[in-house]
Amino acid sequence: MSNQQNMEERLWSYLDGVCSGEERLFIDQLIATNLEWKTKYQELLELQDLLSHRLELDEPSMRFTQNIMEAISKHQIAPAAKSYFNKRIIWGIAGFFICTIIGFLIAGLAQINWSAASADSSTGINLNKIDFSKFYNSTYTTVFMMVNVILGLVLLDMFLRRPKTEVRGKK
Amino acid sequence: MQTGPGDNEIIHKVLQGEQAQYALLVNRYQNFVFTIALRYTPNREDAEEIAQDVFVKAYRSLADFRGESKFSTWLYTIVTTTCITFLRKKKIPIHSLDNEQVFEIADNQNSAFRANQVEQKSKVQVLNDALRLLSVDDARIITLFYQAEQSLEEIGRIIGVDPNTAKVKLHRARQRLKEKMEKHFSEEVKDMVG
């Protein structure tokens, strides 16, 4: 069964013209010398011919084109997606989030007592024992983060507003 | 064979505001779009509604066609998504490739069909009837390859798989089509060969 399937698969590739030159020559030879291959080839060729030349397309109603032209007369072509997906905005948002993450990491790492950690290195790092709340609980850190977030949002707002202002200016 | 101005030329004119030129594209592809839609739903009215929706959507999104692929490939991608959305809205189940139930349903349909069958079938009739017994996925891939003349790469793009997977799917679809023809139309197939 698997031999049969393999034969069909190779013959279909041969008929579709997607097999390599070497494979093509090999199959040419098999069709010429092996009766089983020849019979299967003729069977598939018959089906291929039917599918390629005899399959009919269905036709919609006579008014089809007219209906569509009437329908599109009420519509307008939407502007291309790339015209309203401003890359600067996407990069601006990505930059903001990257900066925020880096800011949080720096603020967190800055508060770790590295000397204490290295002294206790023989025990290895146990993530369950780390009290993350200690890293972010100072007023200074909170203020720093808030300023960062506000600056980020202002920046984002500037990016979002710029194209609109430019369009209005052109008008 | 395509005659008259090329698709890209027509699209350029439509984008320049010559809306009437769009009728050329509709005339050129309406049968292909309608036939693919009919693979999803046997109801001609539904298929026509889908096909209309496809052309309206394509018109509205025409500015997004960048010419990186053939217009037909881009259009058939819209057909696929529109058909799936339509069937979901109508709550008609979309049968997957390996769903054995599809074949059971098809076999039952065929038994009823055969009971009323009196006339001798032509090759084309046998082929079209066998095609109707296939699952949506199988019928669609055969239609795209043979009728819509899409390459394996283009079919891959339309149905969202790589070209190699498209090749395997096409191979399986043809195998199942052959099985259907042999199982349900063996007498007619014998007559054709003989």
Automatic annotation (TrEMBL), chain A:
Transmembrane portions of the chain: 89-112, 140-160
Keywords: Membrane, Transmembrane, Transmembrane helix
Name recorded for this polypeptide: Uncharacterized protein
Organism encoding this protein: Niastella vici
UniProtKB/TrEMBL annotation, chain B:
Record-annotated RNA polymerase sigma factor 70 region 4 type domain positions: 127-177
Domain RNA polymerase sigma-70 region: 25-91
GO biological process per UniProt: DNA-templated transcription initiation
UniProt keyword Protein biosynthesis, yes or no: no
GO molecular function: DNA binding; sigma factor activity
Keyword terms, alphabetized: DNA-binding, Sigma factor, Transcription, Transcription regulation
InterPro entries assigned to the protein according to its UniProt record, in alphabetical order: RNA_pol_sigma-70-like, RNA_pol_sigma-70_dom, RNA_pol_sigma70_ECF_CS, RNA_pol_sigma70_r2, RNA_pol_sigma70_r4_t2, RNA_pol_sigma_r2, RNA_pol_sigma_r3/r4-like, WH-like_DNA-bd_sf
NCBIfam families per record: sigma70-ECF (TIGR02937)
Similarity comment: Belongs to the sigma-70 factor family. ECF subfamily.
Protein name: RNA polymerase sigma factor
Provenance organism: Niastella vici
